[in-house]
Amino acid sequence: MFLDSFFDRVYRLVKKIPRGKVASYGQIAWMLDSPRAARQVGWAMRRSPKGLPWQRVVRADGSIAVGVDGGVCRALLEAEGVLFLPDGRVDMRACRWNGKG
């Protein structure tokens, strides 16, 4: 049951990430008072419900996680105005969600 309730908490938080912003797996874990649960956040995202803005969750360095269709993810993020660095990673300084708004 822990994972189910944790997954629900992840989904509620991810729904709050506004267009044009991103959060890392570790950041979400930290915001849920589970700072060592970044991998569990990843598991939750693999099973995310339809309609969840999954593309707004990236790795801490701004790269798109392995196993995710990077082209689709990047296109969705670009359509939201997310900035990318020349090496293809999200510009985390410009686009990291601060947990507000």
TrEMBL record:
GO terms for molecular function: methyltransferase activity. GO terms for biological process: DNA repair; methylation. Residues 6-82 form the Methylated-DNA-[protein]-cysteine S-methyltransferase DNA binding domain. It comes from the Bacteria. The keyword Repeat does not apply. Keywords: DNA damage, Methyltransferase, Transferase. This is Cysteine methyltransferase. It comes from Cloacibacillus porcorum.
